[in-house]
Amino acid sequence: MGTLTALLLFASCASPSVEIRNKPVAGAPAAELAGLDGRSRRVLRQDGLDRLYRSDPSAALKKLDELQKVEPSDERLLALARLCGALGDEVAETDPEFAAGCYLDAARLSFDHALQMSPSGAARDLRLIYNDSCADLACLLQSRRRVRKLHATFKGPIGVHHLNLRTTGAGTIRPGSFDELYAADRIELKHAELERRYNDGIGGVVIGRRPKDQIDDLETRFVPDFGLILHLNATVGFSETGNRAEMIVSDLSRTGSVQVGGRSAPLAGEWTAALAYLYQYAPTPEDGFLGMLRPAKEEGETDLYELTPYQADKIPLIFVHGLMSSPDTWITMIAVLGSDPVLRQNYQPLVFQYPTGYPIIRNAAELRSHLAAYRAMAKARGGGAALDRMVMIGHSMGGILTNIQIRKSGDRVRNMYLNTPIEDLDVGEAQQEKLRRLMVFDYDPSIRRAIFIAAPHRGSDLARNSLGRFGSWLIRLPGDILSTGLSITQLDRLPGLTEFSKNQLTSRPDSIKSLRPDSQFLAKVLELPVNPRVDYHTIAGQADPSDSIADSSDKVVPYWSSHLDDVASERMVAASHVTITGNDDAIEEVRRLLYLHLGKQLPQTAQEEELPEVKPKTRIQLGRPVGR
């Protein structure tokens, strides 16, 4: 049990899951509306309508509206809007058409005040009512498939509304292309310590699941089987006279504002719920563990996956997880970065998923292949300048895979394994091409910045101690270990193998053996030239702050392994190997580097102090630092 517990140090924490609630979750802005219920009842009593409301809510609200027109007051308006929305909630299951009318009444009553964007008082409360009503209306109409119609009429307790659906404009999206819509503040996160990040604005924040068959054919390869989960915002605009209304559903990955009521208004946003909803479909840490132990069983899931629909004007931001892990290790970082409007406007996140039990050389080739396919798709979709400013972030072994993508092999890697040219090997052309794919590679032409987080560039002692040997023993690899179409036995019989290559085949190389500090392959990678157009950076963990930098470690990767001499910057953070991808300082450093990539400075409020560049006077050799 102790050994298995130690092995799990490599893995992420438990995967988030979600529960759809009937009421807003604690801490959500809409949760504050519950405090208006008592005030609303008090208004009913003051106006002598409480008994009528209990027997005939619609009639009571109609009379309350008439009183408001004669003697307007903020308190009565608040009560009227709140009670219309609450009535919609009560009848949504039994009378959805009338419920839609109730939500439209509530939104109409609060619309003008919502646009004021007041930070407090009755106007703010009315904005919360407006936002909540818009979200409820969008979800209700989608559940009844009414959003597929461009025009519909709904009657509420106060008025009749002729609702149109806006289908054009920046960031506008057709809600009918989603098979699920949920209000973001009704989604409760389970098994996740994630901060809910709300951006103030107008409109109801909803998340939508777009099935794969609703996505461009060129793009579907990079979309998970369950589709895409999008951050959306629903607003409703009203004509100054008459009873015309217009619903606008906006894709928050494309726009942060909306033209409504004759003016531009900022859109409300919330980012964590959609990511958690996405990750309930995604591979779990347990899947990542199995991907190390039985990589052949998880091989079919290997791919580069989009988290939002492809946008040609955005820079691809690619996250590569590490050993015994899965893409959910990035959920906190992606949530925080996604809540920044500048980064959201300029970057498109993707995650690379792969079975981590295979040797590093194979997984690096897989990543290279998927990047090439993505680049071809993006070019076909109009990708240009943004595509060729790609940023890649790798954690742990994912940092090594990332490092390989920015280096050029020439003949150096091939010469490690073969004494003869690949074309002279006595195998078919297909096998030769697969061997060439592993051993001969160029820089990725699109990557312009790489960030290594806790990357063991020179290996880790854990890979060769009893724990590492046990983990390696647990891994079960297929006969075609390198995906060449040749078994280990067939490869071993080939003439022209170097002694290094023969030793590798005899030991059945896996990812853990690839991470030994005496790995000749890792040493060779660091000798390969880096694309001069790429800036690369290190973020390393220091689990014990009392350690000197040269002696520090994140409990898995020591500093002597994560350090690179020629990085553009190096940042030490107080974190362990497991926690570093969710560490506040590490995330803020990534955020700084992404701003730097855009030629921008972080907002002053986010820079409490200048981030130091750590460059200790330590000469590094393979295996250990010297000259301490």
Helix content: 25-40%
Tally of helical runs: 23
What's the story with the biggest beta sheet? 7 strands, mixed
Tell me the total number of β-strands.
21
Radius of gyration: 28 Å
The average pLDDT score comes to: 86
Residue runs with pLDDT of under 50 for 5 or more positions: 1-14, 606-628
- Give the strand content: 15-25%
- Alpha-carbon distance between the termini? 38 Å
Q: What would the principal axes of the Cα set say about the shape?
A: elongated
Characterization of this structure:
The structure is a single chain. This protein is an alpha/beta fold and 628 residues long. Helices cover 37% and strands 17% of the residues. The protein has 23 helices and 21 strands. The chain has a 7-stranded mixed beta sheet, sandwiched between helices. A 6-stranded mixed beta sheet has the order 2-3-9-8-7-4. A hairpin with a 4-residue loop joins strand 20 and strand 21. The chain is elongated and about 95 Å long. The N terminus and C terminus are likely disordered.
Helix and strand topology:
Layout: H1 2-7, E1 17-20, H2 36-46, H3 50-55, H4 57-70, H5 74-91, H6 96-114, H7 121-143, E2 151-155, E3 160-165, E4 180-183, E5 187-190, E6 198-199, E7 204-210, E8 228-238, E9 244-251, E10 257-260, E11 263-266, E12 269-270, H8 272-279, H9 285-293, H10 295-298, E13 303-306, E14 315-320, H11 331-338, H12 341-346, E15 347-353, H13 360-380, E16 390-395, H14 397-405, H15 412-417, H16 429-439, E17 447-453, H17 466-474, H18 488-492, H19 499-506, H20 511-514, H21 520-527, E18 535-541, H22 559-562, E19 569-573, H23 584-597, E20 619-620, E21 625-626
Parallel strand pairs: 3-9, 14-15, 14-16, 16-17, 17-18, 18-19
Antiparallel strand pairs: 1-5, 2-3, 4-7, 6-12, 7-8, 8-9, 10-11, 13-15, 20-21
Helix pairs in contact: 2-5, 4-5, 5-6, 5-7, 6-7, 8-11, 13-14
